[in-house]
Amino acid sequence: MSDKRSEKTIWDLAVEERDSMETYSNQDQIEDSQLPNSDESSIFFLGSKNSGKTSIILRFLDRDEAPKPTTALDYTFGRRTKTGHNIGKDIGHIWELGGGTFLSKLIEIPITSATVRNMAIAIVLDLSLPNELIYTMETLLSQVKSKIGKALEDLEKKHPGSVQQLKKQAVTRFGEEHPDKSSIDPFPIPLAIIGGKYDIYQDFDPEKRKMISRTLRFIAHSNGAHLQFFSTKAEGLTNRTRGLVGSLLFHTPLNKVVSVDHNKPIIVPAGQDSFQQIGAPPVANQDMGKMQSRPPYEQWKAAYATFFPPQKSQGRNNSEDPSKDPQYIEPPVDTMRKQKDEELERYRKLAMRKVRDASRATGGEKRPRSRCAVCR
Fold first, then answer.
1. What is the pLDDT of residue 199?
2. pTM for the full model?
3. Residue whose C-alpha is closest to residue 196's, from 166, 247, 231
4. Which of 183, 101, 185 is nearest to 144 (CA)?
5. Model pLDDT, residue 1
6. Which of 53, 26, 193, 199 has its CA nearest to residue 114?
7. What pLDDT shows up at residue 94?
8. What's the pLDDT score for residue 373?
9. Are 155 and 87 in contact (CB under 8 A)?
10. What is the C-alpha separation between 56 and 80, in angstroms, rounded?
11. Percent helix / strand / coil, the chain, rounded to 5
């Protein structure tokens, strides 16, 4: 009898794994869900590789353990007991995407029409790699927006009027009386941009810190997002980041402290900044006329590139093969991987044999050498 699982792709198996985790979580939470004031929400962490995503999650959950690299998509959850007359527990689903932009296809797994109304996004960037920062930010933000847009389309079909309600909530979070209200496009669901490794960033040249902080302030403000710098080596920043995650996941009150001095950690809750305070991007006089014709984001992006020529994230180190790591053993996936590797090797040998046979059939006639597509 053939194994039906072997006919499925890695993406099919990932979706099945997501569904099985949700089923387990729902069974585990059945007693909580029967309480009259139980609510569920989700937060999805993604961003630069080794930027501190796992550390933030562990600190938030009060888990005293060393973080391990996240290879693909990880899931956990936390509970918060309600106090006072509202008996019940809030359930917080926590997703984390590892690998920077390398596995961004997996973004579609946590973001669905069933989860999008109660989800927040946290993009964690590595401040110690400023040349990769904008590329990572731009790539992930674009793909998250695309997946959220698709989820909202599906949601609107099932629940007409729900998308408009989310848009109103986004404006309310930003501030209905904010002077920049007409100039921004607030993210449809709560969004936080977290700059990790502040302990390294703080040793940068002051002008470089100023460029990074102002650019991130502009991007965050344009999207109606929170902006928070973070370091595992600074207890104060750890506590503030925990407070931000708690606000996004469990809707707890958020400290409205604002810090925009580039010589200090940047802390700006959504709607607490302004384009006037951020100012215009620094541009050389000879480029002023050309730059002013561009949209504001393109102006900031060009100005940032003069300080930090853009680089794509190096992504996963090809020498790191997670299939060889014992902590990621998955028999169905490993069996399928082995089968496909064997099929590829057989095909490669067959293709090479065909090339040799074709060469003999010409009777030694000199012809341009040919290589099969697999062997190139």
1. 95
2. 0.74
3. 231
4. 101
5. 42
6. 26
7. 95
8. 37
9. no
10. 17
11. 50, 15, 35
Of 254, 273, 271, which Cα lies nearest the Cα of 175? 271
Between CA 234 and CA 321 the distance in angstroms is: 33
Written as one string, the DSSP assignment of 75-121 is EEEEEEE--TT--SEEEEEEEEE-STTTTGGGGGTT--TTTGGGEEE
For strands 226-229 and 267-268, give the pairing. Answer: antiparallel
Q: Which of 65, 113, 119, 71 is nearest to 94 (CA)?
A: 119
> First and final CA of the chain: distance in angstroms?
37
Coil, strand or helix: which one is 208?
A: helix
Q: What averages of pLDDT result for each successive group of 10 residues across the chain (376 residues)?
A: 50 61 45 54 92 93 85 86 68 87 80 93 96 93 94 94 93 92 92 97 95 97 96 94 95 91 96 95 68 84 92 53 59 80 76 68 48 39
Q: Provide φ and ψ at 192, rounded to 5°.
A: -125, 140
Give residue 370's pLDDT. Answer: 40
The number of angstroms, rounded, from the C-alpha of 262 to the middle of its chain's C-alpha atoms is 25
Contact 241, 230 (CB under 8 A): yes
DSSP lists the bridge partners of residue 77 as 93
CB 338: neighbour CB atoms within 10 A?
A: 11
Place of tokens 């090479």: 352
